[in-house]
Design goal:
CATH superfamily: Winged helix-like DNA-binding domain superfamily/Winged helix DNA-binding domain
Order of helices and strands: HHHEHHEEHH
Shape: globular
Oligomer: single chain
Number of helices: 7
Largest sheet: 3 strands, antiparallel
Radius of gyration: 19 Å
CATH topology: Arc Repressor Mutant, subunit A
Structural class: mainly alpha
CATH architecture: Orthogonal Bundle
Helix content: 55-70%
Strand content: 5-15%
Length: about 170
């Protein structure tokens, strides 16, 4: 353990968690700038994209997936519903569960959002062109899932279908 304050600060600033945090902050700012005129946050765009990719999900399912509070997801879904990007539909079996699905407007907006995020991704790939991106992505994935044991999908299966295919 370093006793010199300068050495301790250097150890902090040179640490992998700090560098990942700084990179995350920079990347987040760049994505926010890319999508800000869509009128949604990164989380709201992510919810729309995930609903498109995974199908119907409840607010609780989305809260678990994004590790957000149900209240935050409900607020985000309210905004998306106000924009006409998502709509509520009743669960076919569990009538008290409300599912959300993406509307045609939401699909168009998600397509535009994906294109903008793809541009940011291309910029990052260009920055990392001299590195072994495969190993880098694999290492980031290992870090991202080290404490993540939640499967992506609905917790409310439809009769005759498993949760992973719902």
């Amino acid at each position: 353990m370093p006793t010199d304050p300068t050495e301790a600060a250097s150890a902090w600033l040179d640490g992998t968690p700090y560098r990942l945090w700084r990179a995350n902050q920079a990347l987040h700012r760049r994505v926010v700038e890319a999508i800000e005129d869509l009128g949604v946050t990164v989380t709201q765009l992510g919810i729309t994209v995930h609903l498109d990719e995974l199908g119907h999900m409840s607010a609780s399912d989305l809260a678990r997936l994004f590790r957000l509070t149900p209240q935050s997801v409900t607020t985000a879904l309210g905004h998306l519903e106000g924009l006409g990007w998502v709509r509520r539909v009743p669960h076919p079996v569990h009538k008290r569960v409300i599912w959300y699905e993406v509307t045609t407007n939401g699909l168009d907006a998600a397509k535009e959002g994906r294109a903008r995020v793809a541009q940011v991704n291309a910029e990052v790939d260009a920055l990392l062109a001299d590195f072994d991106r495969g190993s880098f992505k694999e290492a980031l994935t290992l870090i991202a899932v080290m404490d993540d044991d939640l499967p992506a999908g609905t917790m409310w299966p439809v009769q005759g279908r498993s949760a992973s295919s719902a």
